[in-house]
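Hi W.,

Here's what went into the run:
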Amino acid sequence: MFNRFFSKRIKNTPPSFIREILKVTQNPEIISFAGGLPNPVSFPQEELKISMNRIADKYGAKIYQYSTTMGLDSLRQYIADRYKKLWGMDITIENVIITTGSQQALDLIGKVFVDEGDNVMVEKPSYLGLLQAFCLYQANFVPVSLNDDGLDIDDLKRVISEYKPKVAYLIPNFQNPTGLTYTLENREKVFDVIKDEDLILVQDDPYGELRFEDAERIPYIGLNKSDKNIYLGSFSKIVTPGMRLGYIIANKEIIKMLETAKQASDLHSNIFGQYLISDYLYNNDLDKHIEKIKKLYKTQAAAMVGAMEEYFPKEVKFTRPKGGMFSWVTLKEGTDVLKLFDRAIEKKVAFVPGHPFYVNPQSVNTLRLNYTNADENTIKTGIIRLAEALGEV
Amino acid sequence: MFNRFFSKRIKNTPPSFIREILKVTQNPEIISFAGGLPNPVSFPQEELKISMNRIADKYGAKIYQYSTTMGLDSLRQYIADRYKKLWGMDITIENVIITTGSQQALDLIGKVFVDEGDNVMVEKPSYLGLLQAFCLYQANFVPVSLNDDGLDIDDLKRVISEYKPKVAYLIPNFQNPTGLTYTLENREKVFDVIKDEDLILVQDDPYGELRFEDAERIPYIGLNKSDKNIYLGSFSKIVTPGMRLGYIIANKEIIKMLETAKQASDLHSNIFGQYLISDYLYNNDLDKHIEKIKKLYKTQAAAMVGAMEEYFPKEVKFTRPKGGMFSWVTLKEGTDVLKLFDRAIEKKVAFVPGHPFYVNPQSVNTLRLNYTNADENTIKTGIIRLAEALGEV
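Here's what came out:
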């Protein structure tokens, strides 16, 4: 009835597939590996309650008033300090802008860089939230294949020379949806290919802190070597997603443009949440808290991988994540994953079929499993049900 | 250095003029009428502190977890109930979507309705946040003149027949920046002109609850007579702006599209804030709280209007608001308001020159004054300073 009013951009943007699946999985009997919810253990509830009372007493009306678009100085300072310490970045708070979750970071980057038809390089598969966000800016996606060690370098060279993308969006750590991490060697090769190109490289890193195997962090692609690098981070997976607080680190000139885009998008992110998280971070040991989350996720990932090894048919492949929240399953060529989804729902287990993670999904035989939101026994039971469903397709 | 990367849309979007002015007014000696900040009396701080502890105890992890794009059911129910009661609207929570402040509502409406070059009707002058938001979607603005009683009907007819706008954006109550309110008669005439047009009418209403004179509310344009009406509301001016919580009420088909746009924009608005405001609303008397704000703003508005009557030269015109937060001043034809701004800053008083509220500002002799964020004496002192500055231009 209103179709004639709707913009071309929105008519070409699919509603989130996952949000549709979540409706099916409202049934509490269904074991859901479909979401991407952090385990509530990652919310430091007691500490946050102390912090909220403290900021109410300490700052009064300020925590309820309008605030600056760039975000709370103390929170931006914490982020700048952490990245300086971890990565030796030469940055100040002027290089940091707070966003309403990482999803808004994607929206703002779309606003600032993407004109209709601009080529944007993405991983194949990529984060569906990015595909959705940039779809609204009418990007032309050019996907590059992923291997176990990161981007396929030959495919990367082909895409770069054929399409000259303006923006590349990569998730080098515990990628969503695959759970894969680019090796150091792969990152160096990627940078060699792109370093002389006219290309803005966005590295999204919501899961980087959740490395539960191989303690050493791997540096970002082109770390401290390129002004055209943009880094995204988030408190969603290590403190709380409900506050919707993420951030962008970039060159000041880029941040300035993102600030204008953010003014137009929501004026500023909720300031109460910024005071709360800032107070929490300065009064608690974040790294100690992250250790607790990692320990749990390691156990949960091991439970899922172990169960898949035991119960899945041998021809089914899956990733063995060293961090993050997901494993990516590749079924026998030609298996219809949507048919599997229907069988799985009958057996009361849910997952995300691979489709929404591809730019042009066709004959998809992949699926995403999340292991962070169920205990070990539930994970095992769910995988057994899924294995039974696999036997029927 | 990065100019070649930036999108056409962002290069055409001006940074917020007001945010630039706010930097000048950081000096505590300056009396600022430039902002649009609610008086902190409008934040029920004690009650919110009780509510935050209650929701922490009652809902646990839920207040920190990811949540639904549409928003918290209980909050949407409160809004639906209030609009049913106040306006007899036949709506359910399916007609309500929560947004990250009203500014996000504007961004989402731009995403969903505006293609490059689409004609969007706005008031002259209009809210600068709308101009900025829709600029990013490359709208072609078609302004309609405002008179003391609302839209200029002849100008409206001309614009409608000449441009056939797809979307109209109006602020019928205590308009920003002018403080004007459309009369009932004007609203009826406006509806007569547009009712058979293919036009989405957005009525933004952040100030409607703040009617401190003439107790009776005036119904929206085309209230309950058009499926093409979209209503915006906000908790920013009556509870707290810092939480960034607003909402859109519209036909379900439109809400569905806005939901997809919101998924891509920030997944959902901060859920802690939604639980908090919802708990506050169900456990306190909002109308009683609003009475307190209105009483204060009435005194503050009277102080400003009284001082302007006493000290401003007779040829200076200004609006006498019956609610909301602003008065709009029109200087003698040909006066350079930017020159006045410089003189005013020297005398330590600030305001917003009219420019950012116009689509094509030229020879602007208007300015906006905010009276909600200073006490009566400060307002008087500020107006005296401004009158002195007026004597020098």
